[in-house]
Structure formats: C-alpha cells, structure tokens
Amino acid sequence: MTANPAVPSATSFIRSRKHARVAAPASNASALTGPALAVLATLVSPLALADGGNKDIDPTIPVVEVQGAARSAIQAPVKSSSDKFTAPLLDTPKSVTVIGQEVISQTAAVSLTDALRSVPGITIGAAEGGNPVGDNVFIRGYNAQTDTYVDGIRDAGSQSREIFNLEQVEVVKGPNSAYGGRSSAGGGINLVSKSAQLENFSNAGVGLGTDKYRRVTGDLNRTLGNNAAFRLNVMAHEANVAGRDVVGGDRWGIAPTVTFGLTGPTKAILSYYHMTSSEIPDTGIPFNNPFASGPNVARNGNGTPLKVDRNTFYGLVNRDFRDTESDIGTVDLRHDFGSNLVLRNVTRYGKTKNDFVWTQPDDSKGNVALYGTVWRRANTRVTDTETLANVTSLSGKLTTAGIKHSYNVGVEFSREATERSTYLFTPGTNNPLTGTFTCPTSGAATLYNCAPVNNPNPYDPWAYTRSVSPAATNVKTNTRAVYAFDTIEFTPQWLLNLGARWDEFRTALDTRAGPTTAATRARVDTSFDTYQAGLVYKPSANGSIYVSYATSATPPGNDAGDGLDALTVAVQNLQPQKSKNFELGTKWEVMRGRLSLNAALFQSKMDNARVTAPDGSSQNVGKKDLKGVELGFSGKLTNAWQVFGGYTWLDAVLEDNGYLNVGTTAAPVYAPSPYNGNVFPTTPEHSASLWTSYAFNKNFNAGIGMNYVDRVYANVNNNKYAPSYTRFDAMASYTLNKNVSFQLNIQNIGDKLYYDRLSSPHYAGVGPGRSASLTANLKF
Predict the structure, then answer these.
(1) Which residues 6+ apart lie within 8 Å of 723 measured at CB?
(2) Domain TonB-dependent receptor plug, which positions (predicted)?
C-alpha cells in the first residue's frame, strides 16, 4: 500500500521527496465505475477529504515534510491476523469487522456472544433437537455455527467460547470457503489469541456485580532473555443471568504461551488453552402457538413468546446441567528467508467435551394453547470431539514485469472425530397419565414431566436415575485442501485480489442402537472448488472502492456430526450446497487514520439448497436469495472520542423451499411449499449497533452503547417470531493512578424484556435483564 502523505506514522520522522504524487479525485471513481460506485463513494467522501490530503500540492515543487505526532493522535490501521489476507483490510475487497481489545474491554464482554453483540447482521440461535447448546451464530441469515476459527484454524466441536485469551475478534462476512474450506454463505469468525511479547507486564482484573457476578482475570508476560518470552492468561468466572434467577454457572480457564525467536528469522510459538464450565442452561419461553384452523382457532396465539413473568423457568434444577471442557494445544513455526519470503507451519490438537441435559418447554402438541401446560422435554447430549490439523503456507512478495504481487499459498490437512450419545432416564420423561408428551394436567401425578405455563416450580422434586444410552453415533471427517491468494498491484490505484481453494472432504457416520447391533452407515466423499475475486480502485491512498465475487460450499455432514447439519443416509449422496456472493463496497481511513469507514451492497444466492423434492426425497433443488446493505465505522472522531458500530439491512427470501407432504404418511402427496417467498428464520431486516466512549480527562472516561434488532422469525412459516428490541448499556471508568483503575458497567440500562436467541419454532431465549458490575484493573 502506498503511504498517504497526509497520514503520518505513529512515530515522528523527516521525509524528503522531490515529486509528490497527486491522488486521483474521488469524482473520477463514478466516471470509471458507474453511478452505483458513486453512491457508495459519496457516503464517505466528505470525511475522506476532511484532512485536505495532497489535493493542493503542486507536484512540480520539491517538498520537504516535517511531521511529528503523538502516538495517541494516530490510530493504527485495522489489520487482520490472517496470512490469507494478502493486502491491508483497507484494500481487501470483502466486508471484515474487527472487534478490538478496547471495545471488548469497555463493553465488559465476557463471552464470544457478548462481543458479537456489537456487530450488526449477526444473530444468535438457540439449541433444539440436533442443534447443541453452545455458540450458534447466524451471519447474514446463514448458520455459521461451524465457521469459527482460532488463529485461522477451524475450531470444531460445540462449545461456548470465552474472551479472556483473545486479542481481537474478526468477523468475515460473505462466503468464506476460499479462506477456510467448507462453510456457510454468511461468513466466518476468527478468534485471535494473545501471544507472548518482548516486554514485561502484569495485569489483573477483579470484578464484582449483581446477580452473583464474580470474575478474576490475570495476564502475565515475562521476557526470557533477549529473544523469547512467556505469557500466561488465567480466568475464573461465576454469575447468574440477570432476570433469570435459576440460570447461571461458573467457569475457569488457563492459557500459557511461550515464544522463541521474537527478534530472529525463526520463530516458534507454543501455546495451550484450557477451559472448564458448569452451568444450568436456559430453557427460554414458549411461543403463543398459532393454530391455523379447526376447533382451536379461537385459541390462536399471535406467534410471539408467551407473556409470562421474566423469571419463569421451565427446567428442573435437579435434572438440568451443562458441563463443558476444551483443551487446545498449538505449535506455530515460522521462518523468514528474507526478501519478503516467509514459511509457516501450524499443528494443532484439540479436544472438546459438551455434556448436557436441558429442558425445552415443548409446545409442539398444543399443550400451551389447549391446557395451559408445557411438556418438560429433556434434550440431552454426551459429546466428545477430537481434532488434529496441520497447515503449511508460504507468503511473499515479488514484482514481475513491473506488476507487484503479494501472495500466500498453502496446504491444509485435518481430521475430526466426534462420538455422540444421549442420556436415558428411569422412569422416562413422558407423562405417565397419557403415555405420551400430551399434558392435560401437570404436577406430581405427571411425575413433574408436565408443568403449568404460569409459575412452574424449577425445584419440583424430580428424582430419576440417569445413564448414558448404549446407542451411539460416531463421525469421522478427513479433509485436505490446497489454496492460493494473490493481491496484484498493477498501479497504486488499481489492485486485483484473487483466491482459490480446492477441498477434498470425506466423512463417515456409524450409528448403533447398542454395542452388539449392526451399524447404520452413511458416507460422503466429495471435492469442491471455491473462489473469490475482487477488483479494487483507490481514488486516494486512504480509500478504496471495490467490486467482488466469492463462492462457498457446504457439504452434507458439514458440522462433523455435532450440529444441525449432521450427515444422514438420506443426504449422503447429495452435492455440497453452493452459494455465490456479489459485493460492491468502499472503505476509507479518514481523519489522519483515526477513523475507518466502510459501506457495501451485496447479494448472495444459493441455487442448490437442500430441501424435500417432489418425490419426497432430499435433493439440491431449493433456492435462497439475500440482498443487503452494510455500513460500518470504527475508530476515533477525536483523540478523546471513540466510536464503533454499524447498520445492516437484509432482505432474505426463500425463493424455493421445496415440497411438503400435504397427504398422509401412508399416502404422501407432495405439493410446492406454501412458504416460498417467506423470510429466512433468524434474519432481522434491520439491525444496528453503536458503542461510543469519551475521555473527559486523563482519568475519567464514560461510554454508552445501543443495539437494535428488528423482528426475527423462528420458522419458515413466519408465524412465530421474536419482536424487535433496542437495548442500551453504559460504562464509566476512573484511573486512580498508573497502577489502578476502576470500571463500572451497567448492561441493559432500561431492564428491557427482549428475546435474543431463537432458531427453533418452539421457544425463544430471554435476553439478560439489567445488571451491573464493578471491575478493578491492576497493573504491577
């Protein structure tokens, strides 16, 4: 990237130059690329030229520039940690949001879902059926549960991720398969871990708050001679969920890292991550179930969650639990050969455990509308996932025939193995009075498997024997891939970004009813190519306008058997679901580099979505279409005023949802889905977020945040939904001295009742109520 003379570096310097290059005026962009680009350019061009730039410099006059700037006055450019981004984010033709450490800290985020709340266009799904409890993220309307990466390597296994060892969170929007292989059309999330630094520091945080909130973190870094360092991050956390008295739990984690060769050409980073958690998971609130017709039409609900007390909990304290454990070890080796050539090899082994019993307040048989009861359906899982991955890549820069290349090529190998079972209860969890999950009554006579809609007792004396089911599912997935990325700079104004990846995906499933029974087997052996291409025009050194195209592929069994997209006999012979995305966008770094702005128009299409075909089989015949607009901003308006946020508009349509059986099971009759043209579930049309803070002086800082999410449908029928909501948060911090500071956070200031998790048509997760925490941050 050519340096912008108007943007000084973070250090003072003197630079002599005979000829100053004149940046192309922004108005030329519309002439070259059409009215659509002009519209995007006008969104940011006033601020882009606010600093004056070089537009008044006579290029014939020799110039000597003397520039000095305090570090606090200059915002370092936002960067990605991934080697696969072969250009700065400013010149990358893709929507990428980076949640930095400052935003994570100021908003008092303590989990990945907390951090993602500040990014519009992302919703969180709830567990149900085959969808396990854990991070269940939807990006631009598509399920990205398996599209989470740690330092660029896929992080398989269902889990709820912490932030105590994270430097930043990178959200890549749009098809992500060229970067990471199998993935959804929505995008992916890369978690950047903290690493050892060549300086000594000791940081700690101690927090207390409402709802039994207690949190302790530590971050210790020590140099080992002049070329190595050790870093240790630790965390212990305990809290209930505000407004949900029974829900809560505790967790602890430790993450040591040692780095050798910090100043030499060869570097080795050895790291380990462990986290253990124990909690009572949330049951959520059932929907007012709308009956379409028949004798129950008078009982029709409006499709929103039931209007019950916020604290209503349908689970059972004596039964419900969730225990998780994650262990990840990584060896990252790099060697710089000089001449801009770097070889890197990363090997990672990981193991995750996710065991739970949680109560889903099931309304599928009409209990809520007919009897004012719910069936306490016990969703259970006993899961162990092991992963082993190795990535070798070569990064470099070269110039051929006057054209500059910045490239990254590599190969990836991975193996994932998941063993999954469930729990059995003696006696069972059905209503003994009916022998089913129909609940005309509730209470002791139903063995507490049925509960009233209003005022259920989570402490009902439910006493059963629990054991692991002999039925088990084993899934093994092997992948290998080759990829290449190149940013080609024809001139300082014109760049072409290219990327391609080939994946071979092999997954096998064995399902056994017991240790002595024959296994039911399913297998997928497939390979697929994915691509991305983007043309970037830079009207000035601090801005870019781009047009891009990218694809993604989601094969059957994408989630390695631990999620909703599990492999089955019915889908094993299907092709990967492929999506394509067209995007037109612009990015600017303005106000002397302090503020980053971006805007994008995009359209994603999936023409071979997996749905039920006219003959009742599963086939790749469905269609989905999504159009959207995205605006984002990050940085500082002044040295004291920080902002972070954005806005997203999504128009997500199920163009062809396949066929439904309108006959009977014995005599099926398939007709086109009546839901064609409906909105994707879990996709708000409008969403917006803002976090802003202001340093009133060197000691006192205050901030406020806002999150708005439009109505979100829970099903393709579009007759159950969570209403729109706006939530406000606040922060104030005071620096006592160089070693001690205090931060007060109030979440959900207005105690807004809202629903922030749903992917099931049965219930919606209740968002946390108002809570407060006070944290002492220590440096020593």
Answers:
(1) 304, 711, 754, 755
(2) 89-187
